[in-house]
Amino acid sequence: MPLSPDQIAEIDAARATPRQTLRAVSEGMEAHLYRAQEVLDHGFIRVIDYMGDDAAIVQAARVSYGAGTKHVSNDEGLIRYLMRHWHSTPFEMCEIKLHVKLPVFVARQWIRHRTANVNEYSARYSILDREFYIPAPDQLAAQSTVNNQGRGAVLQGEEAARVLEILKRDAGQAFDSYESMLSQEGQQGLARELARMNLPMNTYTQWYWKTDLHNLFHFLRLRADAHAQYEIRVYAEAIAACVKDWVPLAFAAFEDYRMGGVTLSAKAIDCVKRMLNGEKVTQETSGMSKGEWREFQVVLG
């Protein structure tokens, strides 16, 4: 069960005692507040708090840019203008705080986004739960033969069973050793801060993660992308669903310009112009490297 009984009771109590407020409220986000969305086999994300909405972005932009945006006649148009022209500070006026439960190896990938405030569950003070991430069979894949940091074909039959058994066995044995080393029940043992060092990377941890919308969009652009590792991508997708309800106008602009858009180099734009003029452009005449040309061809479809 991703949530402990104490956590469930805490959430139920918080939702049972709503309070009146004068601050900006997003009805879409209110529906997500405190509710846990399960991710992977034991993980979850849940919104603890948020600040601002689409109107907060517009309000901040009109203070910042004043007369420069008077030609934009509505909030949606202004937000799209800001996204299109890479104005970041208005989006920083919105913030979100999440409670996330995730495997340690996902947390170490996630923490590379250094633009958030993070407070992680401490295994120096508390004893970790016996919970590990074990991939579903369709996520047991071999190393990609074309991508050094990606997955290839899904393992089948006996090979899949062999790998799955190793994952389960090693995680169980490591946690047995962790528990046997702890100073408890009259045994001197090891301090918690030392006993934890043998635990595997698929052990679950938890943290509070607070960031602003601009940096959250950057996180989502990278981690909700189809090329991101599956285990972090599913967390990003769960967060994206909340953000879509929280700031629908900003999220629509983000999907259009960031997730669905592309950035072309000066050489690529020159090639497009030459193609539109009827010129046959090749990799050799484009001025691009083979890798750039290959990516350009993908963009052109």
TrEMBL record:
The keyword Transferase applies. One of its GO terms (molecular function) is thymidylate synthase (FAD) activity. InterPro entries: Thymidylate_synthase_ThyX, Thymidylate_synthase_ThyX_sf. Gene3D superfamilies: 3.30.1360.170. Its cofactor is FAD. Belongs to the thymidylate synthase ThyX family. HAMAP family: ThyX. This is Flavin-dependent thymidylate synthase. The lineage of its organism: Bacteria, Pseudomonadati, Pseudomonadota, Alphaproteobacteria, Rhodobacterales.
